[in-house]
Amino acid sequence: MKKLFILILMTAFIVSGCITRDYDSNMELGKSQVKEENYLEAYEAFELAYKEDQTDEANELMSLCGLLADGMKKYEEQDFEAAQVFFEEAARYKANHEEGKHMVQKAFGMSSEAGEASAEAVEDTDAEGGPVETEIKTNKKDEAPGTSKPADIGNNESNEDSDTTLTKAQAEDLVKDYADMENYPQLQIQYDREDEKGDYIFQVFEMVNDSKGSGHTATWAWYGVNKNTKEVYELM
């Protein structure tokens, strides 16, 4: 009986050692692939590591790599809207490990790029269909009641412009939602300026207290908001 117990114990040690080696080697492989931005290969490595030992780190890195890999695939296919969905989800991830935080920042940047590419694609489509849109607007004016006065029509056009142009307060709300500030209560936002394109620029930051009791601000990110398209993007 004693020999059997010793044999079982030795077997357990051997199996445990194999699992540890497999987990560590897959984690190292995954992290090296993250540095090369090979997110699909990194995902596969972290998935193998997670099967060996279901740690929080393996789960975090596997999840983020999966989102980035899907986002990159859609971006290469020029499906920018779908790519932005994956990148935004990754950018909202609460990472606790160094590689995870690095991937969250990467997702922020790619989300902005995908948004800009998507907006450019929409502008190109609108430009091609411009004459049709003009005709439709003209028809709507023709259908206006005969009692309408020229001054009334002018007021309506002015109201339409005000509806499509963002105020600073509305732009600030868009940035708060984009940066998921609701889940990061330490973050604060501040309007900075209006750039040469007319976009609103905001700084998102947090207060950091040092050992002497004094504090300073640490910038989380800078964001721009297009007044007309309502697009939020991160300044690099």
Structural commentary:
With 236 residues, this protein is of the alpha+beta class. The protein is built from eight helices and four strands, in the order H-H-H-H-H-H-H-H-E-E-E-E. It has a four-stranded antiparallel beta sheet with strand order 1-2-3-4. Helix 1 packs antiparallel against helix 2, helix 2 runs antiparallel to helix 3 and helix 4 runs antiparallel to helix 5. The longest helix has 34 residues. The protein starts with a helix and ends with a strand. About 17% of the residues have low confidence.
Give the gist of this structure.
This protein is an alpha+beta fold and 236 residues long. Helix content is 64%, strand content 14%. The protein starts with a helix and ends with a strand.
